[in-house]
Amino acid sequence: MDYVILGAGGTGACIGGFLAAAGKDVTLIARGKHLQALKENGLILHSDKKGETHLPDIKVMSTEEYKSKADVIFVSVKGYSIDEIVPFLKKVSDRHTIIIPILNIFGTGKQLAEKLPGKNVLEGCIYIVAWVSAPGEVTQRSDIFRVVYGTRGETALRPKLEKIAADLLAAGIAPVVSQNIAADTYRKFTFVSPMAAAGAYYDITAGKMQQDGVERDTFIALVDEAIKVGQAMGLEVDDGLREKNLAILAALTSETTASMQKDLKKGGNSEIDGLVFEVVRMAEKVGISVPWYSKIAEKFNFKK
């Protein structure tokens, strides 16, 4: 199968780079200085899992240059870019194509599916710490690298999903073909959303949340609020997620920050609407109080 990685930032480039290093047919879709550097020098991975890896011949294109129909498309863009990628996904997919969004924001697959009728749009998420450290270069930290994906109901796509899992596993990526993708993606959300929210609120790295103190207490309170919202929505999420999320937090390097926090500091677009404000909206719909999310949303000028 051939793989297209739409969005060759930290997460996308790692999926594409690991697959390409394992001999899979991969095309990265990138833009700007990153695209130019990838074309000129290939992809350089500084990876805790794979070590120093240079892929000088990895295929890299812009959305305008790619004209084929892909077997599998991993969508790894920011949540605020969803509308602008729809025309590209329509162009490069057919009824055989599997589209797997791995964004941080809960429910992205369903949102995309509504814009792409007749396409095989799954739900997915990724556990990884990775970022673009320079144009054409990506850094991946810690041993965490897991991709979770699945359909929103019964499917005849299972054999293809298992083939994707086999390719990911061969590349050194832990795959999970989910039987309950709504719950599984929300479980990821109960980590990444609180970490982004607390990190942005206090302007801190993961290290502060790893130590006892108000910052860690806030992270825990946000996790608990997110769990309660998910439970009220009827999702299979349990209170044990708190300890699991604390274990994930403990595994991060102390200097780690969420991408939303990085984007807010740059002053441009960020995923705060989907990662923080949307929790307040979801809570209101199901009648749950989320005081910490509300407080943080207010600080960042939340408008309903």
Task: Describe the fold and architecture.
By secondary structure, this protein is α/β, with parallel strands linked by helices. The protein has two domains: 2-179, 3-Layer(aba) Sandwich (Rossmann fold); 183-299, N-(1-d-carboxylethyl)-l-norvaline Dehydrogenase, domain 2 (Orthogonal Bundle). It is 47% helix and 21% strand. It contains twelve helices and eleven strands. The chain has helices spanning 10-21, 32-41, 82-92, 108-115, 158-170, 181-202, 206-210, 214-232, 241-251, 259-266, 272-286, 291-299; strands at 2-6, 25-29, 43-47, 51-55, 59-61, 72-75, 98-101, 120-121, 123-134, 137-150, 174-177. The strands form two sheets. It has a six-stranded parallel beta sheet. Strands 3, 4, 9, 10 and 11 form a five-stranded mixed beta sheet that branches. Strand 1 (2-6), helix 1 and strand 2 (25-29) form a beta-alpha-beta unit. Helix 11 (272-286) crosses helix 12. The longest helix is centred in the middle third of the chain and has 22 residues, at 181-202. The N and C termini lie far apart (43 Å).
Quick take:
Pathway: Cofactor biosynthesis; (R)-pantothenate biosynthesis; (R)-pantoate from 3-methyl-2-oxobutanoate: step 2/2. The chain is an alpha/beta fold and 304 residues long.
Topology overview:
Elements lengths: L1 E5 L3 H12 L3 E5 L2 H10 L1 E5 L3 E5 L3 E3 L10 E4 L6 H11 L5 E4 L6 H8 L4 E2 L1 E12 L2 E14 L7 H13 L3 E4 L3 H22 L3 H5 L3 H19 L8 H11 L7 H8 L5 H15 L4 H9 L5
Parallel strand pairs: 1-2, 1-6, 2-5, 3-10, 6-7, 7-8, 10-11
Antiparallel strand pairs: 3-4, 9-10
GO molecular function, one term: 2-dehydropantoate 2-reductase activity
Protein name: 2-dehydropantoate 2-reductase
InterPro entries: 6-PGluconate_DH-like_C_sf, 6PGD_dom2, ApbA, KPA_reductase, KPR-Related, KPR_N, NAD(P)-bd_dom_sf
